[in-house]
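Structure (tokenized):
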């Protein structure tokens, strides 16, 4: 997947940071696939980055994982449910790596300032936030485009997570469901509103994906989506 996505981004002249998870730590069901573990996963991602000459990112879930990933991964990602965990933020900051914090589904946009203050206090100057939707009733999220404006107005870089924003957490009973067909539309809206990047889960056969199958963007559709996003960016920049 990394090779194919990198080829597409090269043709479309789009900067790529490749993301994959070594542990899906907050799956809905105990029966769901998790991953191969931190060390093996980070080593695979480091090899991908070295081969394709692209930066990589992954979630870290504990201070020990942050230290491990900090030696191998370019951008450390703090999961949304852990975005206020002080010791995790401290450990990520102290690696010297850039940090991406996914804004919790339970936070208002202006609450990210407290997270930024923690990162800065721990010595981190290279960080951004990712908007991934806000809890809206049972098994539903809503992406509020105003959030992108309010986060940027505070002086922080902001990424829009198009595919997690169309999740329906726990909506499939023992798994998360979602409206993957809407992800490209939300990405367009976010680009028009103003953001510094777009996160999208991409898979060659979404139905076979081990996680978030309902939200994945088909690989074959990625080029047209990138061209549309570039055109919108050029129009509003």
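Design, position by position:
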């Amino acid at each position: 997947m990394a090779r194919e996505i990198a080829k597409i981004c090269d043709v479309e002249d789009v900067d790529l940071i490749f993301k994959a998870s070594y542990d899906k730590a907050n799956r809905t069901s105990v029966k769901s696939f998790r991953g191969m573990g931190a060390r093996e996963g980070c080593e695979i991602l480091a090899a991908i980055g070295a081969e394709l000459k692209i930066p990589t990112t992954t979630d870290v879930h504990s201070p020990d994982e942050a230290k491990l990933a900090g030696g191998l991964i370019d951008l450390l990602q703090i999961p949304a449910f852990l975005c206020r965990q002080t010791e995790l933020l401290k450990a990520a900051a102290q690696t010297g790596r850039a940090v991406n914090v996914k804004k919790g589904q339970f936070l208002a946009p202006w609450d990210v300032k407290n997270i930024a203050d923690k990162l800065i206090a721990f010595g981190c100057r290279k960080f951004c936030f990712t908007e991934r939707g806000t809890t809206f009733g049972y098994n539903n999220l809503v992406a509020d485009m105003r959030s992108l404006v309010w986060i940027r107005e505070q002086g922080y870089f902001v990424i829009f997570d198009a595919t997690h924003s169309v999740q329906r957490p726990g909506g499939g009973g023992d798994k998360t469901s979602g409206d993957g067909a809407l992800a490209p539309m939300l990405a367009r809206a976010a680009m028009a509103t103003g953001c510094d990047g777009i996160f999208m889960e991409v898979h060659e056969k979404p139905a076979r994906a081990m996680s978030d199958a309902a939200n994945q963007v088909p690989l074959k559709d990625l080029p047209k989506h990138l061209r549309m996003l570039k055109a919108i960016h050029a129009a509003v920049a």
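Reviewer-requested clarification: The chain has a mean pLDDT of 94. Helices lie at 2-11, 38-52, 63-70, 86-94, 112-121, 146-153, 183-193, 222-236.
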